[in-house]
Design goal:
Length: about 450
């Protein structure tokens, strides 16, 4: 109990706001060795239940302690095919680390940092191995969308022996991991490296294929695919119906982050993707997307970045670590504030936002206190660009092309915990079922569905 939790090394805020290199620098070997000493190796480890894919956490920590990093990474990969990603972006503070027994009186074991440490060790030493697989059964299965749900489902299906093809709308795989989460939180080299593991499993990836447009579900069936897993995410940005939304300079976070991350606007002119944001940028929202947009804007050269959020710091859905990083970097937060309208100049460019102060009231359906407007509290914020990051909805392109597929009233696919839909050979999981959630919950859904698809396909075709 005397050993303090090891603190991850980080780039200094004054330096990192000028570059897109990774902010968190990981544990050194010495730090990892100290941190593993803090684990009590509980007989009934609560951390395992706190992890959505139930990694055997005490086991991999014990293996690090015994200097057996190869077995440690094997142990993690039995449950999680993307550990270098999860070690970086999982909200551990509300998952495994929240459940760690130490968190009751002291600080929890730094489980995420240790997971990242082992995965980075494997990558640096080029020790990636092809996971064990059952013998090929030549049954073709299609996975639509290459985000964490699709990648995990594809990997598990390949391990069961199926012939798996992923169809992806973009020219790169990874879903939000490549187009949403910025380089300084999750280097794309790491996503590409994790996708390599999938290639070792013989999984094929067809890029630039929008299922529901370039190819229909019927085409996939004609191509011989015996079952489908739909994991197209929830990438349709939510908009506010307030005056001024059409002004130049009012963007969705999706447009802004995709342009910067996937199209590499931050490397202009090396990449031919210019981006113009001006000096003062205001972001509307309080989740990871809002914080990512704010920190990207800062790195693109903004002089001032303001986050306008209608609740308080305690209700922000963003990862706590990212909030602290944003504060350190000088992002300004205006809490309990909501936009009412955007005002433009004579050329139609946004130049001000009118906002209203809020106060918190009774709990709403999300379990958080409802923000209520305070009358006559309006004021103006000057700005050159507004980025809307208030959430997303299901993308309807694919679901509209399958009229028989049962959807919820919000347009998400109605699937059970095993990913089964109302159509026998169509399974679904990740954000397209739950709405916007987390990387690890999408991966958990991919795993569950692969298990159910394996049972279905075996009973029908083998
Ligand atoms: P996605 O990752 O959205 O992937 C869906 C894929 O399907 C995409 O590649 C898309 O191009 C493709 N696709 C869509 N339609 C079609 C079609 N018709 N045909 C073919 N392909 C199609 N979670 C965390 O745990 N930690 C974080 O720090 C975090 N930060 C985030 C930051 C941002 C900016 C965003 C937007 C989300 C963040 N999340 C975070 C949430 C997390 O990334 C998502 O919950 C997760 O990626 C969902 O995975 P998915 O596989 O369901 O979908
Ligand atoms: Fe170790 Fe905490 Fe898990 Fe116990 S709950 S096994 S102390 S990480």
């Amino acid at each position: 109990m005397k050993i303090p939790r090891q603190k991850m090394r980080e780039q200094d805020p004054s330096e990192r706001i000028h570059n897109f290199s990774e902010v968190a620098l990981g544990f050194t070997e010495e730090m990892a060795k100290i941190e593993v000493e803090r684990c009590l190796q509980c007989g009934d480890p609560k951390c395992v239940n706190g992890c959505p894919v139930n990694i055997d956490i005490p086991n991999f920590i014990r293996l690090i302690k015994e200097d057996n990093l190869l077995e440690a990474i094997r142990s993690i990969k039995d449950y999680n095919i993307l550990p270098a990603i999860c070690g970086r972006v999982c909200p551990q503070e509300v998952q495994c680390e929240k459940a760690c027994i130490l968190s009751k009186r002291w600080e929890p074991v730094a489980i995420g940092a240790l997971e990242r440490y082992v995965a980075d060790w494997e990558r640096k030493n080029q020790l990636k191995e092809c996971p064990d697989c059952e013998a090929p059964n030549n049954i073709k299965v299609a996975v639509i969308g290459s985000g964490p749900a699709g990648l995990t489902c594809a990997a598990d299906l390949a391990r069961y022996g199926f012939d798996v093809t992923i169809f992806e709308a973009f020219h790169k795989g990874g879903g939000v991991l490549v187009y949403g989460i910025p380089e300084f939180r999750l280097p794309k080299e790491i996503v590409e490296d994790e996708i390599e593991t999938l290639k070792m499993l013989g999984i094929k990836v067809e890029y630039n294929k929008i299922i529901g447009k370039t190819l229909m579900i019927e085409d996939l069936k004609e191509m011989g695919f015996k079952a489908l897993f739909i994991s197209v995410g929830a990438g349709l940005p939510l908009m506010r119906k307030i005056p001024g939304m059409n002004l130049n300079g009012v963007l969705t976070a999706n447009e802004f982050l995709t342009r910067t991350n996937l199209m590499k606007a931050y490397k202009f002119p090396e990449y031919d993707t210019p981006i113009k944001i001006g000096k003062v940028i205001t972001i509307i929202g309080g989740g990871n997307t809002a914080l990512d947009s704010a920190r990207v804007a800062l790195r693109l050269g903004a002089e001032k970045v303001i986050i306008v959020y209608r609740r308080t710091e305690s209700e922000m859905p963003a990862r706590k670590e990212e909030y602290h990083h944003a504060v350190e970097e000088g992002i300004e937060f205006q809490f309990l504030t909501n936009p009412v309208r955007f005002l433009g100049d004579n050329s139609g460019n946004v130049e001000k936002i009118e906002v209203l102060k809020m106060k918190l009231g009774e709990l709403d359906a999300s379990g958080r206190p409802r923000p209520n407007p305070i009358e006559n509290s309006e004021y103006l914020i000057n700005c050159d660009t507004v980025i809307i990051a208030i959430g997303t909805n299901a993308n309807p392109i694919l679901t509209k092309s399958i009229p028989k597929l049962k959807l919820t009233k919000w347009g998400y696919i109605d699937a059970d915990e095993e990913g089964k839909t109302n159509i026998e050979d169509v399974f679904a999981g990740g954000d397209i079922v739950t709405g916007s959630a987390t990387v690890i919950s999408a991966m958990g859904a991919g795993r569950q569905a692969a298990k159910a698809m394996n049972a279905f396909l075996r009973s029908k075709f083998l």
